[in-house]
Design goal:
By secondary structure, the protein is mainly α. The chain contains three helices and no strands.
């Protein structure tokens, strides 16, 4: 007796089954590749926006620092009739404000903007320090020692 070989009948079925599995995996890979490509585009856009924000803030701060330098120079040039001790204290305050302003300028120039999370903290601290310098300048300008 002869045994029937069913493998020839099963072969087309096996080919169809493998083809359907392969095409499903191929579709999943295509979807994954598109998702990765979209994620890269989103990341690039976010990085461009971040760089733009840092540049804008840097420009704004540089303007504030220049204005502070002009105000410091103006305060130094004002001649007051006061006791030597009071003038010495005032000059020390001006020198301290000038050092702080110069340190802020240096901090901004040295900031590289490597990390978005650090940027928020840096910006908050920097704005606070800059506001303190502005406040000190205004307070010193309001109180001319006579």
């Amino acid at each position: 007796m002869r045994k029937k070989n069913h493998s020839f009948r099963m072969f087309p079925l096996l080919v169809i089954l493998l083809a359907s599995c392969t095409s499903a995996k191929s579709t999943d890979l295509d979807k994954a590749a598109k998702a990765v490509e979209n994620a890269k585009k989103d990341l690039d856009e976010a990085n461009r926006q971040y760089a733009k924000e840092v540049a804008s803030y840097r420009s704004s701060v540089e303007t504030d620092l220049r204005e502070n330098k002009l105000e410091i120079a103006r305060l130094k040039s004002v001649r007051l009739d006061a006791k030597e001790e009071a003038l010495g204290d005032r000059n020390e305050k001006i020198a301290l404000i000038q050092r702080t302003n110069d340190e802020l300028d240096l901090r901004m120039r040295q900031y590289r903007g490597d990390n978005k999370e650090n940027w928020k903290e840096f910006k908050r601290e920097y704005a606070n320090d800059l506001n303190e310098v502005d406040k000190s300048l205004k307070d010193l300008g309001k109180d001319p020692m006579k």
